[in-house]
Amino acid sequence: MDFECEVDVMVKDMFGLDLRIPIYQRPYKWTEKNISELFFDILKAKEENEKKEEKDKLESYRIGTIILHKKNEDDDKEYYNIVDGQQRIISLCLLLNILYKLLKILDDSKDLKVIEDSEGITRYNICKNKTKLEKLVTSELKPDQAKKEYLKYIQDECGFVKIVITSESEELAFQFFDSQNNRGKELELYDTLKAYHLRNIPDSNNYDKNTAVEKWEEAERLSPLFESLYQIKQWSKSKNGNRSKWKMDDKDRFFEIFKGIRNNNDEYPFKNYHLSAREFRQIDMPIIPGEYFFEDIFYYLELYEKIEHLCKENFETEFKNLGKLKNSREGKFLRFKNSGDKYIYDMMKCALLFLAVKFGIENIKKRSLVKRIFNWAWILRVCYGRISKETINNYARGIKSNLDRNLKLFEIIGDKTEIKQILEEELPKPKTIENREDELYRYIFEEE
């Protein structure tokens, strides 16, 4: 049996378990509003139960569902990783510890080691919520007898639905984590990937998981990087990239790509080739699960930021002259006045990133290649008055453009073996000019 389910497991029994928070969990993010709702929901349930005349019909208050993964240490001692429900568990720990302290009761509750995140989100929210709970307990539960009754109610009458995953493999645990957290708003798609690939690093491996998590959380540009990588992988095969301004169009495809090759027992030559220790990376190659994934992403992230600076160095003056940039206090990245220009700029960065990974950034820094990619991207602004994500997606795939010929640039980059072969490709020209921008048109074609 892969998992067990038990209803109405009381708080005192739940905290009697050796509970631990696995490294793939996100930071503790409950707000003062969340913590206040928990406090008053329990208080209201307690007061309503006290009003019942028939005490034998008292109902327990269900706090929610907790999903745990049962594990064994080397000495066969059991412990439980919290797969889902860590926000409530941490919050209840805070509330119980405050009650113990105020009532001067020896704290026999289980200590829960909370994973520190690099940005200090967990520490900040714990401190803030602890202060909020202390105020609520002292103001709403007077005298001490009220605190004792509230504590007893939490321990004896508040319960969970407890799901325990008993499979030795963590695959089922991850699937639960994946399905639970993808329904919320806090966890980004790429954070689920972090969890998945951490799981694929064996404990026997010397790879420093904690350092990888810290670097991941410190990274500023993961979201645009992953959208760029996804689009490059799709466009290089003439498939749809992301066509929506607001969300990922195809989450299943996103996860299929970035979870990479399954490291199972299938003896296929292509899998053996890619799963062997490789000394190079290419964006259009399959993802290798585990530590290689993190090494690749950190490399791409560093390169992505260099591409940002490369574009800024080469085109900031031109964009200002064309009136396309808006003022930015940060000044670190280029900021565009309308979404259409930003979409074109992002597509241009995708092409440059693809080239930089394949040929090396020093080799693409030559003005001729960077300018050629600029020209290819910004022809769109001359051709169209309105630029949508769908416009970008079609153009990058080499279809449905208002040009004299279509150019599948990403497919070409994937196929070519020399930079000069890309420079030899003839750029398309507008069949008609809908959005007449003479200055931009001249800048694009002056050297063509």
| Secondary structure tally, helices | 19
Count of individual beta strands: 5
Span between N and C termini? 68 Å
Average of the residue pLDDT scores: 83
Helix content: 40-55%
- Record the strand order, biggest sheet: 1-5-3-4-2
Alpha carbon gyration radius: 28 Å
List the secondary-structure elements in sequence, H or E.
Answer: EHEHEEHHHEHHHHHHHHHHHHHH
Global structural class? alpha/beta
Shape: elongated
Task: State the main characteristics.
single chain; 448 residues; alpha/beta; five-stranded mixed sheet; 19 helices; 5 strands; 54% helix; 8% strand
Secondary structure elements and pairings:
Blueprint: E1 3-10, H1 11-14, E2 19-20, H2 32-51, E3 61-72, E4 78-84, H3 86-103, H4 121-140, H5 144-157, E5 158-165, H6 171-181, H7 189-199, H8 209-218, H9 222-235, H10 251-259, H11 269-275, H12 291-321, H13 339-359, H14 361-364, H15 367-383, H16 389-397, H17 409-415, H18 419-423, H19 438-445
Parallel strand pairs: 2-4, 3-5
Antiparallel strand pairs: 1-5, 3-4
Helix pairs in contact: 2-4, 3-4, 3-5, 6-7, 7-10, 9-13, 12-13, 13-15, 13-17, 15-19
Brief characterization of the structure:
With 448 residues, this protein is an alpha/beta fold. It has helices spanning 11-14, 32-51, 86-103, 121-140, 144-157, 171-181, 189-199, 209-218, 222-235, 251-259, 269-275, 291-321, 339-359, 361-364, 367-383, 389-397, 409-415, 419-423, 438-445, and strands at residues 3-10, 19-20, 61-72, 78-84, 158-165.
